[in-house]
From TrEMBL:
Domain (Glycoside hydrolase family 3 C-terminal) ranges: 410-568
Official protein name in the record: beta-N-acetylhexosaminidase
Gene3D superfamilies, sorted: DD-peptidase/beta-lactamase superfamily, Glycoside hydrolase family 3 C-terminal domain, Glycoside hydrolase, family 3, N-terminal domain
Keyword Iron-sulfur: no
Entry EC number(s): 3.2.1.52
Position of the signal peptide: none
GO MF terms held by the record: beta-N-acetylhexosaminidase activity
Catalysed conversion reaction: Hydrolysis of terminal non-reducing N-acetyl-D-hexosamine residues in N-acetyl-beta-D-hexosaminides
Family note: Belongs to the glycosyl hydrolase 3 family.
Segments forming domain Glycoside hydrolase family 3 N-terminal: 51-365
Pfam families documented for this protein: Beta-lactamase (PF00144), Glyco_hydro_3 (PF00933), Glyco_hydro_3_C (PF01915)
GO process annotations (BP): carbohydrate metabolic process; peptidoglycan turnover
């Protein structure tokens, strides 16, 4: 190392950076230098020895998982051959960054660090970093801005990891279904689509300071040989090559691609010499790419270890021929010592002009300068994994897969799938024995019957499946790829085809393909097919949501699979306003902040024994962004809470059942809420309830008593009361038919007594607000009288069943496993047992579990979906349930009331009273609290839904710590805090929510 270069190195080391610098746009044309650039390049070039200059043309292999011997070899090549760059492969991000910093510190000039990152860092660091969709799936996307966004995010991650070069995009036009190495790595078969998306990918990288590299020049798409294993031969004419294979490269050269990778292909039309790879061909690299196309950037060879070159050339000869052909950087040389020796010999023999060699070195130096490698950068190791795998990046991945979903055809118009009024939805999983992300998400859209089989089901297995399927059923079949890295082939056996044909003849069939779209050729006979491109779990989730209409389907096939699945095939659907799932950032929510605050509050509540467990859900703009279970069913910690658990909703019943039914009857003109109760309930004639206006009852302004302890009148007298044998039996017999618990049955005449006590009760609060359960007993009777259906039957028929909300039910043990239902109390005052699966409220229990004020059970998801329907002005799943004006009427405060709507609780506006929800909630927010420790709040101003379910009454309902801790309110507040300031909320980017209705 000479004295001048030592001074350069010292200057570099003096300005080491430990953080990622702001990035400038990478300027691709290396033929034009600014005076500052020329001065730096000249200074560094003249300071270097011959070997240091030559070393800049080498980029060597580097792993972070091959141990000390491999690291020592890389160190040796950096120190002895002054290599200009490293290309990282498998390992871990932490170890890669550690080694990158180590190698940079050793190098006399900062190294150019590269990766194959076609689908992000996950291509080389799978399961540790994000894998975005492969290019074939991206080829289906119609919004090319998403491609730019993805490349921008990949650039950010690469900078964070100390990487400067991405060997992407792939510009190969893949028009050969048998291509063993490109396949899913191509944008598809259409040159224009490949070009447009390749441009956006390139621009996203280079606008953010990462050198993009278009590959594999002059086009690897129409081959059936893997150049890693042999030398593929492309026999097309020059005219064909120019019109198809070369088209994207020609365009991106024009629009500023920074580098191009020369492939190992034999192309007789361009170079007739036998066994001459294009990467070693002067007519292809220099004459065509450099001169005819006018490319002024860097030219990389493809990996020089590949059999496409090593099969016909010796180590050292490969590298020398590549330099002679016109390449600038030798990627993954097999033998550096032999390469140095042979290249020097070629120079001495005149095969490589010294001026050409100098030109290449200067190009590499200029590129390094433009990448910021005129000075070393050492990114910090702290928080690396979390800063690579950000919530925003995960959100972008979801957006990409949602945009890629392609409904190839839908002859029977089955998509979006509607919850069937008759029949059932059956999921048949083929080729994935374990429960999948697809089938798990399907469960959020109804009660699904799940079946599974292998890729070659036996005749017996086929028959068993067919026996589980009925004519009215919708059968959603999922076919999974073999998991191969580039091909992702979906095996569609004759046995599978026979089974699918039999199902199709019997039921409504929807086929979803999680793999290569070329697999569609085997499925031409089926009328409804969704192409999802890969078995990636995010794609599976997106497919399930798309099928049920939570998201739009807009993708188009990027390749032709068959006549029935041609290029550009794809039907567009609209979102049908079903509850969807998304990463928080996609709807303007800070997911990390939200989760951390709710986690802290949940742990506090469980630690303080305010409740043994809970489920919390937050949704915005129709998307669930947070849903998590905490704790256990009881303090014995024997069963953990699941998000699928079904809780006693207590007084949430008033709005989630009774009020909804009243609203529906108002919609239909069957109830006028300004009429008195006696108009509909003649049995009230002569009582003080006869003239109570329905509107006032709904708003708790009718003067009714708060409640009546009906159960006490059925207990034995004395110090230790218990259920009287006059009213109860331990087994069902005669008139003792009302189940209060598993082993306690009440005489049905007691129900009449309950009603009589309500009719006879005083009105102690006339003209005043007084929260009352009694009014909602009467509302349930009103529903029954007007509709001919009990409140549970009416709500199920008009809301729960058509919406696919299987968990919303009264008396849940009739349809739901007991294990899904947390107990609500160890009752030692009435039922003398642990109450589980029966309504906790004593009065509702005496009504057979069905009442207007309590009795409804449900999961967090189903409660949220029900209230999302209200937020969407009465529509859900493509069906209208309520009129917008009815929702507005019921969610508007009662005249001169500062809190109550009609049935619905609203934000407390009286400053002298305690808040019932988050202070940041708007005045339009509505919902209800429940005695067992439940809450649901909806805020139209923020399109926000919040659900909190718990069994805080276990083991004793006197436990009031949940209220003392304000857990429900604080968690609700956390949702607003995660939205940021008011100005941030109004300007936050909210994707995929166009058309969501709001309560006016």
């Amino acid at each position: 190392m000479n004295e001048h270069f030592s001074r350069v190195l010292l200057a570099v080391m003096a300005v080491l950076s430990v953080t990622v610098r702001a990035q400038q746009v990478y300027e691709a044309d290396l033929s034009q230098l600014t005076p500052t650039e020329r001065k730096w390049v000249d200074s560094v070039y003249t300071s270097m020895s011959e070997d240091q200059r030559l070393g800049q043309l080498f980029m060597i292999r580097a792993h972070s998982d091959l141990g000390p011997d491999h690291v020592a070899e890389v160190v040796s090549q950096i120190e002895n051959y002054h290599v200009g760059g490293v290309c990282f492969f498998q390992g871990t991000p932490e170890k890669q960054l550690e080694l990158t910093n180590q190698y940079q510190a050793l190098s006399h000039l900062p190294l150019m660090v590269s990766m194959d990152a076609e689908w992000g860092l996950g291509m080389r660091l799978p399961d540790q970093t994000i894998s975005f969709p492969k290019q074939l799936a991206l080829g289906a996307i119609r919004n090319n801005q998403l491609i730019y966004d993805m490349a921008t995010e990949i650039a950010r991650q690469m900078h964070r990891l100390g990487v400067n070069v991405s060997f992407s995009p792939v510009l190969d036009v893949n028009n050969n279904p048998e291509n063993p190495v490109i396949a899913t790595r191509s944008f598809g078969e259409d040159r224009y689509n490949v070009t447009a998306k390749g441009y956006m990918y390139m621009k996203g990288l280079q606008d953010n300071g990462i050198l993009a590299s278009a590959k594999h020049f002059p086009g690897h798409g129409d081959t059936d040989v893997d150049s890693h294993l042999d030398l593929p031969v492309i026999k097309h004419s020059l005219a064909r090559l120019d019109s198809i294979e070369l088209y994207p490269f020609r365009a991106l050269v024009r629009y500023g691609i920074g580098s191009i990778m020369a492939a190992h292909l034999q192309i007789p039309a361009l170079d007739p010499r036998p066994n001459r790879p294009s990467s070693l061909s002067k007519p292809i690299v220099s004459d065509l790419l450099r001169d005819e196309l006018g490319f002024n950037g860097l030219i990389f060879t493809d990996g020089l270890e590949m059999k496409g070159v090593t099969k016909h050339y010796q180590p050292g000869e490969v590298e020398a021929e590549a330099i002679a052909a016109g390449s600038d950087i030798l990627l993954l040389p097999e033998d550096i010592a032999a390469s140095f020796e042979t290249i020097k010999r070629y120079v001495a023999e005149g095969k490589i002009p010294p001026a050409k060699l100098e030109e290449k070195v200067r190009r590499v130096l200029l590129s390094k300068y433009r990448l910021g490698l005129n000075r070393a950068s050492f990114p910090a190791a702290e928080n690396l994994r979390s800063e690579l795998n950000t919530a925003a990046a995960k959100s972008l991945k979801q957006d990409l897969y949602e945009a890629a979903m392609t409904l190839v055809r839908d002859k029977e118009k089955l998509v979006p799938i509607a919850t069937p009024e008759t029949g059932k939805i059956v999921s048949l999983r083929i080729g994935s024995p374990q429960s999948s992300a697809f089938t798990t998400r399907l469960d959020d859209y109804g009660q699904i019957t799940h079946l599974t089989t292998g890729v070659k089901p036996t005749a017996t297995e086929q028959q068993q499946i067919l026996q589980r399927v009925d004519g009215e059923d919708v059968v959603v079949v999922s076919l999974y790829s073999d998991g191969s890295r580039f091909i992702e082939k979906v095996p569609v056996s004759d046995e599978v085809l026979r089974l699918l044909k039999a199902i199709d003849q019997k039921s409504k069939l929807v086929v979803t393909v999680f793999g290569n779209p070329y697999s569609l050729a085997a499925l031409d006979g089926f009328g409804t097919v969704l192409e999802a491109y890969t078995r990636d779990e995010v794609a599976q989730d997106a497919a399930a949501q798309a099928l049920f209409g939570a998201t739009r389907i807009t993708g188009r096939l990027p390749v032709t699979a068959s006549k029935a699945a041609p290029y550009n095939a794809g039907l567009e659907t609209t979102a049908n306003f079903r509850m969807g799932y998304a990463n928080p950032e996609s709807v303007g929510v800070n997911g990390e902040q939200l989760a951390s605050k709710i986690d802290v509050l949940a742990r506090e509540a469980i630690r303080e024994k305010a409740t043994p467990g809970m489920v919390v859900l937050v949704a915005r703009s129709g998307k669930v962004v947070f849903e998590k279970a905490y704790g256990h069913h009881t303090y014995a910690r024997e069963q953990a809470v699941s998000t699928n658990d079904v809780y006693d909703l207590a007084s949430v019943t008033k709005v989630a059942a009774t009020t909804l039914c009243i609203m529906k009857l108002v919609d239909e003109g069957r109830i006028d809420i300004d009429k008195p109760l006696g108009f509909y309930l003649p049995e009230l004639e002569g009582t003080n309830k006869e003239n109570l206006k329905i509107r006032a009852v709904l708003a708790h302004r009718a003067g009714l008593s708060a409640w009546i302890p009906f159960y006490k009148y059925t207990l034995t007298p004395g110090r230790y009361p218990k259920p009287s044998s006059q009213f109860y039996r331990t087994a069902q017999t005669g008139n003792f038919v009302v189940p209060v618990t598993d082993n306690l049955f009440m005489n049905k005449v007691c129900i009449d007594s309950v009603w009589q006590r309500i009719y006879d009760s005083p009105l102690p609060n006339v003209g005043k607000y007084r929260y009352s359960d009694l009014g909602f007993y009467l509302m349930a009777k009103l529903i029954d009288r007007v509709s001919g259906l009990t409140v549970n039957e009416y709500a199920a028929r008009h809301f729960y069943r058509p919406m696919g909300l299987e968990s919303l039910t009264f008396n849940p043990l009739r349809s739901i496993d007991r294990d899904r239902i947390p107990p609500t109390e160890v009752d030692d005052y009435f039922r003398m047992c642990t109450v589980q699966g029966y309504v906790h409220d004593m009065g509702a229990g005496m009504m057979g579990g069905v009442s207007g004020h309590a009795g409804l059970f449900g999961s967090a998801h189903d409660v949220a979906a029900l209230f999302q329907m209200l937020l969407q002005e009465g529509t859900y799943g493509g069906k209208r349930y309520l009129k917008p004006e009815t929702i507005q009427q019921f969610t508007t405060r009662y005249a001169d009331d500062l809190r109550r709507g009609l049935g619905f609780d609203m934000k407390q506006l009286d400053e002298d009273r305690s808040l019932n929800m988050a202070e940041d909630a708007s005045a339009r927010a509505f919902g209800h609290l429940g005695f067992t420790g439940t809450a649901v709040w909806v805020d139209p101003a923020e399109e926000l839904v919040y659900v909190f379910l718990s069994n805080r009454t276990y083991p004793n309902m006197e436990n009031n710590k949940l209220n003392q801790l304000d857990t429900r309110i604080k968690m609700h507040a956390a949702a607003y805090q995660a939205l940021g300031s008011t100005s941030e909320r109004s300007t936050s980017a909210v994707r995929n929510t166009a058309g969501l209705g709001q309560v006016p």
